Amino acid sequence: MGVTKEAELTQRRPAPQTVAKKYADVTLRMIEDHGDDFGPLTPEKEKALQRKLYRHIMILISAINIILFIDKSTLGYAAILGLFEETGITKDEYNNLNTFFYVGYLAAQWPGHYLLQKLPFGRFVAAIIFLWAVVIFLHCVATKYAGLVVLRLALGAVEAVIVPAMEITIGMFFNREEQAFLQPIFWVTCQGAPIVAGFISYGLLWTKSAVLPWKLFMITTGGLTLLLAIWAWFCYPNNPAEARFLTLEEKVQVIQRVHGSSQSSIEQKQFKKAQFIETLKDPVSWLFALQAFTLMYSNNLTYGQQNLLTTSLGVSSLGSTLVAVAGGAFGVALCIFAAIVLKWHPRNFAVHGLVWCIPAVAGGIGMVAIPWDRKLALLTCLLLAGHTYGITYIIALGWTTSSAAGYTKKLTRNVMFMVGYSVGNLVSPQIWVPAAAPRYYGAWISMIVVSWVGTPAILFVIRFILARRNAERERWIAEFSEEEREASRVEQYDEDGQVVTKNVDIAMLDLTDMENKFFIYPL
After folding, report:
1. 3-state DSSP call for residue 51?
2. What long-range pairs does 37-46 form, CB within 8 A, spacing at least 24?
3. Are 349 and 463 a contacting pair, CB within 8 Å?
4. What percent of the chain has pLDDT over 90?
5. Which pLDDT belongs to residue 361?
6. How many CA atoms lie within 13 A of 386 on its CB side?
7. Hey, is 499 helix, strand or coil?
8. How confident is the model at residue 501, as a pLDDT?
9. Least packed by Cβ within 10 Å: which of 97, 429, 433, 523?
10. What's the CA gap between 469 and 451, in Å, rounded?
11. Is residue 17 very low, low, confident or very high in pLDDT (cuts 50, 70, 90)?
């Protein structure tokens, strides 16, 4: 009987995973050459390394993010800075312009992600930032609806992959525990964008120039974006192995920390068809895409309608910019609070997502139920609904990437997530039917049901699936020794052109979460 049990265990033991070197992680060469050159990372050195990464990575991508969300909301601020008066567009056409942005965003997802994998990462990010600066500047010469349509399509296309690129960068340089609380800190800049944009708008409304304020707003934001492109060109890293601000020892330590935490690759330049197919077959990928759609169904509230809703409540254009600033400050405070909570309770992402949708539900109910003459109460509900659910988006976006392994699979899942995001944003402006103004009962009720109740429900389904997979894997892993768990090899050519194999860390093989049964899903 003992022999039979041993035979069964032998059959179930993992065969050593072997891949060709070109399909392994791009950081493999550095670990092969220098992985054993340095001693263990002491707590003091780790803290110093973390501070260095915060300074060089988080400050740069936070600057990119705040400019990104200012540029996303340019149309919303232009609406109160003279856009309607100069171009003669209608409210329906304004809604369509918000939709056309996401048509371009959607169309550019797959080609953008393909280029993101094939081209030098940092240079590609800098180039697309430059292109979106050019498009923002070109808004100044558009005086008709048709010209604005073309520019909104172009702006959506050039901004399409910048958010996934920044998320991938965070995953390259920080371990899982750091990612959990850095996500809300990073996205403070998203919530803080209305503060910067609001003050810029407020100042421009006082100008007496012959150029209308909405064009001056485009020139200002375009100039900031151009400066950002120059900064990114010189400072945005391709990956830890090529980060110029790190010493050789620090590069090795960053790579080893990330691999040890995630059991996943950092970067891989080969598109893998098998990983692409696996992503499409994985129900979790579709569920993340679906929740991106349901949550973004409400997104035009914040980035297209809020200023118009504020003025419809009797607030002046000047006052509405200050309301936007107040909303941004409220969002920043919530993001900081969420980061603190996630630092101390880094699990249960679905629960965190639910918590931040509850205030949005309350705000939406208030916008439907409170009498129209209660202006202050309605403004409060508007800010509550518009600046809380975004934290759920932040949590879900990070979870989408951290719950997948394999570089092509991560990119494909990001594409699916962003397609859901784009389609939700395509639909979102169209629920604000002008004939339903000023209460927009249908829009508010549908957002409550689809976005703020539906999204947490999907997140709990994802959690159920991943928890079940983890339980199966943990039982399976417990049967093997440490040596068996690390059985992995890479094939490469030696100086004589002969194929040789070397033992490497399994994280170096760029396996997917389904191929690597030792991968444990974050919950």
Report:
1. helix
2. 37/248, 37/249, 37/252, 38/249, 38/252, 38/253, 41/253, 41/256, 41/257, 45/253, 46/253, 46/257
3. yes
4. 37
5. 97
6. 27
7. strand
8. 46
9. 433
10. 27
11. low
The token duo for 103 is 């048509």
Q: Which residues of 121-132 are buried (b: 16+ CB within 10 A; e: fewer)?
A: bbebbbbbbbbb
| Alpha carbon distances (Å) from 465 to 33, 85, 253, 296 | 40, 52, 33, 23
Q: Of the candidates 348, 56, 343, which has an alpha carbon nearest to the alpha carbon of residue 184?
A: 343
DSSP letter, residue 24: S
The whole-number average pLDDT for the span 55-69 is 91
Please report, rounded to a whole number, the percentage of residues in the chain having pLDDT higher than 70. Answer: 86
SS3 label, residue 370:
coil
Model confidence at 491, in pLDDT bands (50, 70, 90)?
very low
The whole-angstrom separation of Cα 278 and Cα 270 is 16
Of these ranges, 9-13, 20-24, 449-453, the one predicted with the greatest mean pLDDT is: 449-453
The helix or strand, by DSSP H or E, that contains position 57, with its residue range, turns out to be none
Amino acid (1-letter code) at residue 44: E
Find the helix packing angle between 390-402 and 407-427, rounded to 10°.
Answer: 160
CA distance 62 to 339: 15
Structure tokens of 366? Answer: 């208030």
Asked if residue 64 has pLDDT above 70, the reply is yes
Using CA of residue 312, residue 313, residue 319, residue 321, what is the dihedral sign? negative
Dump strand ranges (E) for 229-341. none
- Whether 394 has a pLDDT exceeding 90, the answer reads no
Query: Using CA atoms, how far apart are residues 160 and 153, in angstroms rounded to an integer?
Result: 11
> Taking 80 as the threshold, does the pLDDT of residue 482 lie above it?
no
Q: Please give the Cα distance from 330 to 391 (Å, whole number).
A: 12
Residues 6+ apart with CB under 8 A from 374: none
CB 267 within 8 A of CB 239: yes
- Distance (Å, whole) CA 195 – CA 325: 4
pLDDT at 470 over 90: yes
Q: Strand, coil or helix: what is 110?
A: helix
The tokens 């509405």 sit on which residue?
320
